[in-house]
Amino acid sequence: MKILAMVILGFSMLFAAVDINIANKDELTTLKGIGASKAEMIVKHRKTKCFKNVDELIEVKGIGEKTIEKNRKNLTASKCKK
């Protein structure tokens, strides 16, 4: 079942960007250089402060400019609801 979920997530990456303000942990781990622990840190960070743009990912410990640049074409940040 996990394999099927990963295949589906993989195909979704081909057609849609990952929204860092609403993506779940599994969706975030499909990004290059983002494992389970960094995905969890992104989710935890946005509970206190939503991302106004993709570049604000730099505020998450362990995520640098190189990681953002590797994934930029696959990232988006929806409008903050708070």
UniProtKB/TrEMBL annotation:
Alphabetized, the UniProt keywords read: Signal
Return the GO cellular component terms, semicolon-separated: type II protein secretion system complex
Q: Which SMART domains match?
A: HhH1
Domain (Helix-hairpin-helix DNA-binding motif class) ranges: 26-45, 55-74
Q: Which residues form the signal peptide?
A: 1-16
| Alphabetical list of Gene3D superfamilies matching this protein | Photosystem II 12 kDa extrinsic protein
| GO terms, molecular function | DNA binding
Gene Ontology annotations of biological process type: DNA repair; protein secretion by the type II secretion system
Q: Which domain of life is it from?
A: Bacteria
- UniProt cross-references to NCBIfam families, sorted A to Z: competence protein ComEA helix-hairpin-helix repeat region (TIGR00426)
What name does the UniProt record give this protein?
Answer: Helix-hairpin-helix DNA-binding motif class 1 domain-containing protein
